[in-house]
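Show me any protein, fold above all:
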Amino acid sequence: MDKLLAIIGREFSERVRSRWFILTTLFGPLLLAALLIGPPWLAMRSRADVDVAKVLIVDATGTALGSAVAVDLAGGVLGTATPPRVLEVNAAVLAATTDSLRGRLLAKAIPGLFILSRETIDDGQAELLLPYGSALGVSERLAASLERQLRQARLVAIGVAAPDAAYVAQLRIKVRTTQLGSDGQEASARVNMLVGFSVAMLLYVAIVLYGQIVLRSVAEEKQSRVAEVVLASVPARVLLSGKIVGIGGVAMLQLGIWTSALATLLVNRGRIFAMLGLSGTSVALPPVHLSDVLLLGAYFVLGYVLYASLFALVGSIASSEQEAQQAQTPVLMLLVSSIALLQTALQDPNGTVATTLSMIPFSAPIMMPLRLGLADVPTRQIVVSVGGLLLTTVACLLAAGRVYRTALLMYGKRPTLAEIARWMWAAD
């Protein structure tokens, strides 16, 4: 036990005090903040760069639809923004007019042409011409304005009074989806999805990151032949267990810091957005119970030990670190498969795909925490999932220990699959 604790302490302290750990621990929250704040900020800047007032509206509808769109883009009758220019032409000369304006567009004398024709009235089809490399956000604003004005025009055409038609045309639908848990607690579906996705991705990143650290550590020790000296005084299983537990402690520490940073960012999202001049509200996190924390911790620990064992196995049989990096592909694919189907699971957390993947030990550490954040998972499924993951983890740890014991001292010869299988089944 003293030797095991010494190895755990060495692995933990060596990595916690490293510059790599400090940089990645600080970089994690910064990356989370960039992902949370960056897209809305960039979207706002993109909208600001789009000057619809300079787009020329070519109206060949004969209904003053272009003028209505221009007024709407300027903020309505009482709006203070500058409306786009409108060129009303006869439908018969629309093609010739468009061809002549294309030259001005290519010369960048005008930033864009919004062409309305009889097809716009009949089918809602319009055409927007922009120079190559222009901001595409302008199309969304023009399309939204055109849709409002067409809706209003059609209402007037069937006899609805103009003020009433304008009132209906300005209607915007916003649906707030609330999910009810089995205990009657209300929670935002969007927040649940965000939290579930964030937890799944954090677990994925931590398992991959620290599993590969185990792989590199084993490969380096084998290549430098340090393992020969260590194994002279420490059994191989103790060395492997100490390495996995010590590095896992570093992972738990860093994951705790990242999780706290993510929760702080979400809770203070509204304040941060207000400081940057963005519109947004803070996120009320769903209630977290001790049982949830323990269950998530169990999935992370078991998932990490499972993949760390497989990475250690790969590192022990490889003859160099480069070869170990190449040989880890099958192990990574086991984990990446769950991420590839993450979108499907987000849309239907109790569907066949999500449920099946949460039962498979190699994808359960990612998929089941995701489902737990999005739906009420039956207790029997949790028991089966945890039980299967625990048995698979123990089996992989024992197999990795047996291969590690033999392969770590082999140099210059790559073991065959038959030899690896024989080592796995060899008696201790």
